[in-house]
Each structure stands twice: as structure tokens, then as C-alpha cells.
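Consider this today:
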Amino acid sequence: MRAVYVIAGGMVKELIRKKDFYVLFILMLALLGFLSSQSFFQIEGISRYIRDFGYSMVVIFSFLITVMTAAKQLPSEIESKTIYPLLAKPINRKTIILGKYFGSVFVSILAFTALYAMYLVFYMATGEKKVLSLLAEGYLMGGLFLSLVAALVIFFSTFLTMSANVAISILLYFMINGFSQELRNLSYLSKGAASYVAGAIFYVIPHFDFYDMRVRLTHSWDALPAWIILAVSAYTIVYAYFLLHISGMIFGKKKL
């Protein structure tokens, strides 16, 4: 496990040195600051826009950081040949996959924490009902979502280039969010092979909608029951484990 921590620690240091996160942080600060200024001038309903838009930006920006971080790990190291010193040490390839995964998760959650903390400042300033348990669940769901995204991107990185990985991951995210419900309806309303194919795809794809707390936070609804949080957590662990297991098998057979 020490090798996993070393690899992951190097990725966290890389995030701190890079400017991408700081640019996104400043951009989000500027956007939320602009919306808050409209609230000052008594524009009706602007506080809900702040909560809605703010959480959406936190998730999307954190998602982009996760994708960009995880997608470049294996391809860039193979291309620059910096992976050979790792392989020369007593470290198997599955350990490298785990190190890259946990490093990506640490980086994404670190970025998400900073962005979410800024979002909380603006959320509290809206003057609406504060549900601390709901805010805590919003943070937890965001972390689980990014953990699943990191596993998916690491999986893609075992057989895709960085640019292809980034493009497919982003496209898949928006397609799943936009059409998963239609796919579910198709599986129930269709007959024959179309129903089975649609149903199989629906149950195999990662369900990013499980983690969506945007509407609940926007309207300050009650917190989710504990069993839902536990179910989503279990789903994330099982799905991520499966992706990482397959990634280790593919990377283990890959010629370098």
C-alpha cells in the first residue's frame, strides 16, 4: 500500500503546481459573485439560481478536473517512458492502477472540497432555510460521484489515448444525464430484442443521476434517508471495484 500512497501523493502535488484548478476556482468565484450582486438589487428568485447554478458549477468543474487528471496518467507516462522506473521496482501493474486511481480521487476531492466550501459561503448568504445534513449529503454524493468518474476514466486510459479518453468521458457524462431516463422507458415500452438491448445498456452504464443533489439543494428539501446514502455508496464501491479490476487485467497484459 505504501507504493499506492507514493503514487497518489505525487498526483496531489501535481495539482497544487498546476494552474487549471486556480483558473476554475476564480471563474466560479466571479460567476457566483455576479449572481450575488443581482440578489443585492432584489432580483426575484436569484437566490435559487445561486444555489442551482453554484452546485452545478461545483460538480462540472470538479468533474473536468477529475477527467483531465485521470485521463493523462497512464498515456503520458507510457509516452514519456517515465513508467519504466516504476515497473523496474517491485511494483506490479495492478498496484500502479490503484495508485493512479486513488491519486485521481484525492486530487478530485481536494478540488471539490475547495469549490464546495466556496459554494457554501454563497449558499449561506442566500438567507434560505439551512439544512446542514442536506449540505453534508451534497458533499458526500459529490465525492462518491467523482470516485466513480475516476475509476471509469482510469479504465478508459488502459486502451485509449488521453484526448480520446477526455472526449468520450465528457460525451458519456452528458449523454447519460440526458438520455438515461429515455433508455429506461424504451426498455419497458419496447418489445423483443429492442427491449432487452435497451434494458441491458440501462443497467450496465454508470448512473450519474444517483448522485445528483442539485434540485434538492436548490429548494432546500429534507435530507435523504440513510438507506439511500448507503445504497449509493455500495453501488459506487462495487462499480469502481469492477472497473479497476478489469483495468488491472487489461494493463497487466498491455505491451509496453
The mean pLDDT is 82. The chain has one domain: 2-253. The longest helix spans residues 46-80.
